[in-house]
Amino acid sequence: MEPSDRYHYHVIRRALDHIDAAPAPLSLEALAREMEMSPAHFQRVFSRWVGVSPKRYQQYLRLEHARALLAERFTTLATADAVGLSGSGRLHDLFLTWEAMSPGTYAKGGAGLEIFWGWFDSPFGEALVMGTDRGICGLAFAAETGRAAAMEDLVRRWPKATFKEAPDRLRDWVETAFGARQTDEKAPLYLIGAPLQLKVWEALLAIPSGHVTTYSGIAQAIGNPKAVRAVGTAVGRNPVSWLIPCHRALRKSGALGGYHWGLPVKRAMLAWESAREDAG
């Protein structure tokens, strides 16, 4: 990114953090003051990065928004597949490619793997990213849990792997995946999970940005309609949050359900995507 773009990226990240932490909607003037910018300049920068005005974005954060999404943008995964929104279409939107570790290697708990890690800024707060030489394998958000809990959570998924702090090994992939780096290259994912988990994560990749589905819908999509509880567990065990969009899975009632990295983060992700979908 150009220096000005990098600066504005961090400004918007701080603005989103401030909005999410506020007990009530904030005025344009108050937000601009916090960002040390004029209201007009801040509005232009925010609208460029998020797609809508700060006022409109805050409307998407209301709890009722999840119910509206379920009513208006519910996606059955069979339909998504039929219209070409699954698989390569979804991956193209995120500039991602992916491959999975073999079940046998997964069963060894990551033995023989060298996993690199680093902390990065994201639109949803500080993110811990991990990856092998084949791609990103872990992404956690620390805004609600804290750094220590996020690190412990990812490390214990692959207890026999070797972990090495090396953010520079991951930076290009991370910036590509978050849309902060314009490139024709794709950020690779290397998914480390059990066979059922991989099926669920692949189904999640079929949900278009700005849309949602239900846990039961995912169970139908993987050919096991009675496995709603197991699907919920697999969704919660998604190691690559945001990139595999588990935040798009809701309860039938329209309630947000759980989210491994905290419901405020899930609300922010749904609001961010809805804003950009409507602006497009």
Features:
single chain, about 280 residues, alpha/beta, four-stranded mixed beta sheet, two-stranded parallel ribbon, 8 strands, globular
Word description of this protein:
The protein is of the alpha/beta class. The chain is about 50% helix and about 15% strand. It has 14 helices and eight strands. The strands form three sheets. A four-stranded mixed sheet has the order 4-3-2-5, sandwiched between helices. β2 (about 115-120) and β3 (about 125-130) form a beta hairpin. α2 packs across α3 (about 40-50), α4 packs across α14 (about 265-280) and α12 packs across α13 (about 230-235). It is globular, with a radius of gyration of 18 Å.
Secondary-structure topology with pairs:
Blueprint: H1 3-21, H2 28-34, H3 39-50, H4 54-60, H5 64-72, H6 77-82, H7 88-94, E1 96-100, H8 103-107, E2 114-120, E3 127-132, E4 135-141, H9 147-155, E5 162-165, H10 167-177, E6 187-191, H11 195-204, E7 213-214, H12 215-221, H13 228-236, E8 249-250, H14 263-279
Parallel strand pairs: 1-6, 2-5, 7-8
Antiparallel strand pairs: 2-3, 3-4
Helix pairs in contact: 2-3, 4-14, 12-13
